[in-house]
Amino acid sequence: MSSWSMKRRLLLSLTGAIGALWISGVAMTAFMIRHEIDEVFDSALQETAQRILPLAAYDLSRRREGEQERVRLGRSTAEDHKESILYQVRDPAGRVLLRSHDAPERPFSAPMTRGHFDDGERRYFTEWSADGSLVIQVAELPHERAEAIRALWLGLLVPLLFVLPIAAVAVRATVNRVIEPVRHLQQELGTRDGAHLDPLDGKGLPAELAPVANDVNRLLSRLSLALESERAFASNSAHELRNPIAAAQAQAELLADAAEDEEQRRRAEGLKVTLATLNRRIEALLQLARTESGMALARESMSLRDLVELLMDDWLRKPQCMKRIRFDNSAVDPILISANADALGIAIENLIGNAVKHSPEDTPITVRLGPGAVLSVVNDGSLMGADDVARLKQRFARGFSGATDGSGLGLYIADTIARQSGGRLDLYSPARGQDTGFEAVLSW
Question: Is this model's pTM higher than 0.90 or not?
Answer without folding.
Answer: no
